[in-house]
């Protein structure tokens, strides 16, 4: 049995709590937040506290708080030499106060407040300074069904940037497609199977191999036609930059 | 029974042939290509021809050829007043020679040579000048299990541009994520569940509502950190442009 204290009340904290609470191998013994209001739904399931001096001894303290809060909160913890981890993709392991055993437990996935999370689809990137701590974190991840990977701070930071490309930026391309289709009263819904297929394709094939379309073919006529159709300068800028990007990747253009 | 002649030997032609050939309601009576070499695998299943004068009478002729070939090929067909459709997202219905009954049967999906296609995931955008032709095309699409939508030429053209955004451009973002992760020896594979989840999220939620991340939150510290990590000027350009785009959409920035 792994005893865990969760600190923080955001999406990651909440989804971790729900996942931990479902499995026998893990016991969440306390859940801390600056204000217990955010946690009141869970008061019957776990001891909820807003006072760090009430923290009990546990195998593991998970700081699922904002990036900027990790360092000060870790310093304020009224104990030392226990395992304290954060869940951030962007913050180094050494941001955790050195009085603790330190680690990182970074779930590489997008979480929303409402939707349920299947942790089988959430790779956990693990970092620890001591092998025994690494193995505890790995055991914790495996208990909730997550794949795990040992990832150092530099690797985690580039994964975090890359996640912005495949998640936030990709979603913004979907948004632009929505704007473009709506401008002619066409249905964005018609693009949904294509969106899904594009994501599925790179599960088994490299994005390089998966590329198709007018930019890759250097089909100048279609490229010109598309640019003529785009009415928003901002869409045109994105079209030009990403077309150039594809042509650089596939040798149609040289810098 | 709908009798069909397919013209062309590319991915769309091939996947349509395979789908049509599976269902009882459709009979592919001939398959034409400039060279029958490309079609030799199918000679036992269908009459394969490379001479337009051999074309038989059919309910429908499908020009699944390159955009530029649609107009000249439609003119060369040695008959008139029969239903002739093309499968392109970018070409107008009036590019088909006016001696024919004209239509468009545009499958909005990405096709690769190897992977099998489930037409339930391929919306067919249908356009026709006569109601009777529209209904025949709709019946054809339904026979292979595809959802259908009446889409006029202007709508189809913007769908085609929008498809480039959600398919080619999105795939290029995946490619950049691949480059970024590899630069630190991190595994691109760790991003695959996130890629899939991002695509799934907008199946039930608008891209506007689905957006998250540092650009939307205007988290300047993380934005700065990310820019510092990116070593390739080209990645930096994309990062800046898409961050600005998200901030324009979500009211963090005004033009």
- Using the 3D structure, state the CATH architecture of the largest domain in chain A: 3-Layer(aba) Sandwich
The radius of gyration of chain A is 23 Å
Strand percentage of chain A = 15-25%
- What percentage of residues of chain A falls in helices of 4 or more residues? 40-55%
Query: How would a textbook summarize the main sheet of chain A?
Result: 8 strands, mixed
Most residues in contact: chain pair:
A-B, 88 and 88 residues
Question: Using DSSP, what is the number of strands of chain A?
Answer: 8
Low-confidence stretches of chain A: none
Enumerate how many helices of chain A there are, as a single number.
Answer: 9
| Widest β-sheet, arrangement of strands of chain A | 3-2-1-4-5-6-7-8
What does this structure look like?
2 copies of one chain form a homodimer. Chain A is α/β, with parallel strands linked by helices and 255 residues long. Chain A has 2 domains: 2-151, Rossmann fold (3-Layer(aba) Sandwich); 156-249, Orthogonal Bundle (N-(1-d-carboxylethyl)-l-norvaline Dehydrogenase, domain 2). The first copy, chain A, is built from 9 helices and 8 strands. Chain A has helices at residues 11-22, 67-76, 131-143, 153-182, 192-204, 207-210, 214-217, 220-229, 233-249; strands at 2-7, 26-32, 47-49, 60-63, 83-86, 101-107, 124-128, 148-150. Chain A has an 8-stranded mixed β-sheet, with helices on both faces. In chain A, strand 1, helix 1 (11-22) and strand 2 (26-32) form a beta-alpha-beta unit. Chain A is elongated, with a radius of gyration of 23 Å. The model of chain A has no long low-confidence stretch (mean pLDDT 96). At the A-B interface, helix 4, helix 5, helix 6, helix 7 and helix 8 of A face helix 4, helix 5, helix 6, helix 7 and helix 8 of B.
